[in-house]
Amino acid sequence: ESPHEPVLTVTGLRKAFGGVQAVDGVELSVAPGEFVSIIGPNGSGKTTTVNLVSGVLRPDAGEIRVGGVRLRPGSQEAAAAAGIARTFQNGRVFGNLTVRENISVGLHTALRAAQPWRGLAGFPVLRWLPLLAELALALIPTPAVRAERLHAEAEVDTQLSRFAERLGPRADQLAHTLSYANRRRTEIARALALQPILLLLDEPAAGMNQSETAEVGAQLAELKAAGHTIVLVEHKLELVNALSDRVIVLDEGRIIAEGAPAQVRADPRVIEAYLGR
Ligand code: ADP
């Protein structure tokens, strides 16, 4: 892999729902450390694009490459293993887990993936074996597993301290008792704990008031400054304009404009797509 290899390359991406061509031949490429925003009117295919890249949906056509390696289509596990982490438009946290547990969820999944005997759970006769193996591990943890656990705990602490003011005091609170904004912060912290190569954020400031939106903006600016590679889907153009190296404008599943924020803002096709209906 050359240092200039894009983190993400998407070619000929298509997805239809019934008669609706939600994504219609999208091509995009994201360089290491780049902050790319995807904007467009409602229903223009932004979330579907994110769902395709993160393996939530399987494309009808097209290719998704991470670091030059083709992703298995429609597999969230493959996307996660390749280093893609994402947040969801409505915010998804496990209400009956604490903030700390929510942040560590993905890490534990990664840990589990490294424990092959778990696969045995699928065979009824052998169902008790994984349990026994885990019990044994809990009693005599191998150095590798112990190291993984310590790493996971350290990573959760790192993310908690990132949101120290907001999430710190609530680390052991159940997520369903959190405010909406704090649920969304928890979700971002969980994505970051995975130390992703590419972070996909689907409207992280949706439903937030002005000061909360500004706070998310500051948080994202910090991530950008730290060199994270980010794709942001966002309606709030003040965030998009302040953060983006490049803006991609979708309309009816197609890219109608692309460039620096100021350039895109002045594009007649963009003005038409937003105002001409
Ligand atoms: P955006 O995120 O830009 O608002 P979406 O990607 O959510 O747009 O949707 C693009 C188009 O695909 C819309 O017409 C929407 O109604 C349709 N669509 C999205 N998801 C589904 C689905 N699961 N089933 C049917 N139609 C869908």
TrEMBL record:
Q: Coiled coil: which residue ranges?
A: none
UniProt keyword annotation of GTP-binding present: no
Which UniProt keywords are given for this protein, alphabetically ordered?
ATP-binding, Nucleotide-binding, Transport
InterPro entries, per database record: AAA+_ATPase, ABC_AA/LPS_Transport, ABC_transporter-like_ATP-bd, BCA_ABC_TP_C, P-loop_NTPase
A biological process term (GO) from this entry = L-isoleucine import across plasma membrane
Q: Does the keyword Nucleotide-binding apply?
A: yes
Which residue ranges does the record assign to the ABC transporter domain? 8-277
Q: Which GO terms describe its molecular function?
A: ATP binding; ATP hydrolysis activity; L-isoleucine transmembrane transporter activity; L-phenylalanine transmembrane transporter activity; L-valine transmembrane transporter activity
One GO CC annotation, please?
A: plasma membrane
* SMART domains xrefs: AAA (SM00382)
Name of the protein:
ABC transporter ATP-binding protein
| Species of origin | Nocardia panacis
Taxon lineage: Bacteria, Bacillati, Actinomycetota, Actinomycetes, Mycobacteriales
